[in-house]
């Protein structure tokens, strides 16, 4: 019995020394430690670079930026959007005015 126990202790000692040498985590009980997450590269800096800050997002908005600068700036995307809406309305495809939608039309039919 003592021979088997000493072999187990020797294996544990060898595993501990080898983990120190090779920089691995020594975990003789096999518990979950989350060490695999700690070994991963830190992603925080990349995420900060990928997602713009709140200040940058607010500065991109042209009306707010034009108020700060003090001169009239034009947002090309907004102008294109408004032109597309006008074209749809001219064909009868635009959104209905307030109170003229499907629900309002059904309510008017009920009242009659």
Task: Note down, in words, how this protein is organized.
It is a single chain. With 112 residues, the chain is mainly alpha-helical. It has helices at residues 2-22, 35-39, 44-50, 54-60, 62-69, 76-90, 102-111. The protein is elongated. The mean pLDDT is 80. This is Small ribosomal subunit protein mS33.
Largest sheet: none
Q: What is the overall silhouette? A: elongated
Mean pLDDT reading: 80
Distance between the termini: 98 Å
What structural category arises from helix and sheet content? mainly alpha
Helix content: 55-70%
Rg value? 34 Å
Tally the beta strands: 0
- As residue ranges, the low-confidence spans are none
Amount of beta strand: under 5%
Q: H/E element string?
A: HHHHHHH
Count of helix runs: 7
Concise synopsis of the structure shown:
The chain is mainly alpha-helical and 112 residues long. Helices cover 65% and strands 0% of the residues.
Keywords for this structure?
single chain, 112 residues, mainly alpha, 0% strand, elongated, Ribosomal_mS33, ribonucleoprotein, mitochondrion, ribosomal protein
Task: Spell out the blueprint of helices and strands.
Layout: H1 2-22, H2 35-39, H3 44-50, H4 54-60, H5 62-69, H6 76-90, H7 102-111
Protein name: Small ribosomal subunit protein mS33
Keywords: Mitochondrion, Ribonucleoprotein, Ribosomal protein
Main location: mitochondrion
